[in-house]
Amino acid sequence: MEARSATQDLDERQAQRLAKEGKVDVALREYEELQSSDPLMIISSQAWNDLCWFGSIYGKAEEVFFAGDIALAFRTDDGNFHDTRGVALAMSGKTKEAIQDFEAYLWWTRLHERRTERQQWIRDLKSGKPVDEIFTAKVIERLSTQ
Question: Does the pTM exceed 0.85?
Answer without folding.
Answer: yes
